[in-house]
Specification:
DNA-binding; WH-like_DNA-bd_sf (chains A, B); transcription (chains A, B); mainly alpha; three-stranded antiparallel beta sheet; homodimer; about 150 residues
Chain lengths: ~150, ~150
DNA sequence: CTAATTTTAATTGTGCACAATTAAATAGTA
DNA sequence: TACTATTTAATTGTGCACAATTAAAATTAG
């Protein structure tokens, strides 16, 4: 590719990533409206539906988010009675985040979301798996490069 | 795939998108530090280096952003003397965004960024083109679905 | 030509996202 | 033991991102 072409928006892989992520997140909005949560809050619930409780640090490792993002978001979710936050007895530094009864019940309401979202995507399973694989490789590569800077 | 598996973070294509986008954006940070701009501001400059001036609406169409995001960002960039904003004479509703001399000069400093970034990615040209093509298809699909909601 | 409609940005309010700093608890060490 | 270093969250400050509303200008319809 010519040097000038590399400066064109059209040819930038990261712009495609950036734009697609935001448009896909918008598709979640109506599906999450019923639960009254945002997409990042949905990710927190997905993590907790797998394992609850998790410390803020563990949650951050799974979602690639730090306490500066998580702490205020978790406080909002606590106010909505989806989760509870409490200090660990064994290690008072750790704040554990656990599902409430309401947070657990939300899982049933959310069970249809993955399929409803996939209905919006005109891609077959192989394409999606392929895309996910490529993205995960890119993600791990970026994390490697990023961590020693 | 089993219904339960679809609820796992690990299996969600949109989570891969979300995490990868943010990690890639972090890789830009040190490259853009010299220009003293953020990644979204870099996207504005890329658009203007192709065509200047552009109206706020045209810029929004290229970047998939609305005036609620652009207006304050453009004001910050104007304060840094990278761009200028002025009303169109022909249509007073339109605000035109044009490069300043400093904004034009920044293009030379930024010319190395695409290659520097690609150095951080362990993917060949074909893989990248393939990924971009898939993402663009997903993007257009999402925009179609999203617009009538 | 006037009134209703549409287009265009700006504004308001909420919620991430993240770098940098702070503070408390724990672990490691001389 | 006391002293240092590390780990963990919270806090602070800045900058997107977007829905909803507002206001001005231009277009369209009657």
């Amino acid at each position: 590719m010519m040097a000038e072409d590399k400066m064109k928006l059209e040819n930038q892989i990261c712009f495609s990533l950036y734009a697609t992520t935001r448009e896909m997140t918008k598709l979640y909005r109506p599906l999450l409206a019923d639960l009254n949560i945002t997409y990042p809050q949905y990710l927190v619930l997905l993590a907790l539906w797998e394992t609850s409780p998790l410390s803020v640090k563990e949650l951050g490792e799974r979602l690639y988010l730090d306490s500066g993002t998580l702490t205020p978001m978790l406080k909002r979710m606590e106010k909505e009675n989806l989760i509870e936050r409490y200090r660990s007895k064994e290690d008072e530094r750790r704040v554990l985040v656990g599902l409430t009864e309401e947070g657990r019940k939300a899982e049933e309401k959310a069970a249809c979301i993955p399929d409803l979202l996939l209905d919006n995507i005109d891609m077959n399973e192989e394409e999606i798996l392929n895309l996910k694989h490529t993205l995960n490789r890119m993600l791990e590569g970026a994390r490697q490069k990023g961590e020693h800077q």
